[in-house]
Target: Xylose isomerase
Amino acid sequence: MTKFFENLQPLRFDPESRDLAFRHYNPDEIFMGKRMEEHLRFAVAYWHSFAWPGGDPFGGQTFERPWFGDTMENARLKADVAFEMFDILNAPFFCWHDADIRPEGDSFAESRRNFEEIIEYFQAKMETHKTRLLWGTANMFSHKRFMAGAATNPDPDVFAWSAATVKLCMDATHKLGGQNYVLWGGREGYETLLNTDLKRERQQAGRFLQMVVEYKHKIGYQGAILVEPKPQEPSKHQYDYDVATVYGFLKEYGLEGEVQVNIEQGHAILAGHSFEHELALAASLGILGSIDMNRNDYQSGWDTDQFPNNVPETALAYYEVLKAGGFKTGGTNFDAKLRRQSLDPVDLIAAHAGAMDVCARGFKAAATMLNDGALETLRDERYAGWDSPAAVQMLQGDLETAAARVEREGINPEPRSGRQEILENIVNRFV
Model:
């Protein structure tokens, strides 16, 4: 045992507690035939929880952690602390980038050796701890070699380096039984068209993703391949702007049956959408895979990655997830940071516990709303006319036939209420 979380015991479910405990998240409570833990599938983000130093765009490090420093000894200590935190939270999953878990070497070979040693360390940890791997991914945005992108880079050597990195991370994810592999193109975009060949960069990105899918099948990996949409920051224009953009990209390269999306709440907001919009669209397109649960400061124009604390927002999000049949390989990853003034070990535990409770409250509201059926009944009523034989036939016909029906039947439609306020009142009964 390390001393970092000294005197912090595993959290329990105790709705009446005034101490640090779960008041709403009861992993064993049954909803729709499954335990709450199996529905929500919480995951801890290794990067924000253990690798982030507490900086922001205007100031540097505020956190002092005993494992900070590029040595293998520190990397092992970081893993020890991480699994202690997973135990305190009873977290079923965690997620990592390669750069989060190993020190950077002077060469690719050295970085690979460091990485593979930590993967072995993780594997031994997972034999004696509950927590599994929800997904792995590669950090292809922090190092200066990626300043012009990874797969979209104008330098083919960077493309090759990126391919080697993804192969390494996919092998590790496969080895650890990870249920998904995520590609987050943090710099797969451009800052100015003056030096950018859009067509070429999109072709490179498309071929890279095809290579990833081909390798998945070659090694027999059974998990899902996920792309995470993001509209901006750090690149001014991202090729994976939102769910609709990603789906168009997947269709262009014949990957819509192979790749799903990992949708982040904060990214949805930066794209000018709501979280539930992106979830509903992905579900309707058959590509909803997993979610990153966080929030942005709505007065800031950048991705602040705060822990969720808005129950109505999480309820609407989980409503869409449940309507889509729930998570399969995906889950709820807390891609969220402490505030840079939250310096103490207990702050890490409290942030995750509070977020898990917010999600549990939202999930319970969503499950109750779905079982109640009022929203779906009113939605079905609104579109009921399309179930008539005449409407079905019209969609199967042509423009002239539809136009002739107006003349023949004397159609003169009158507007009907969308009942938005009534629907919002229904939601408010539950949240």
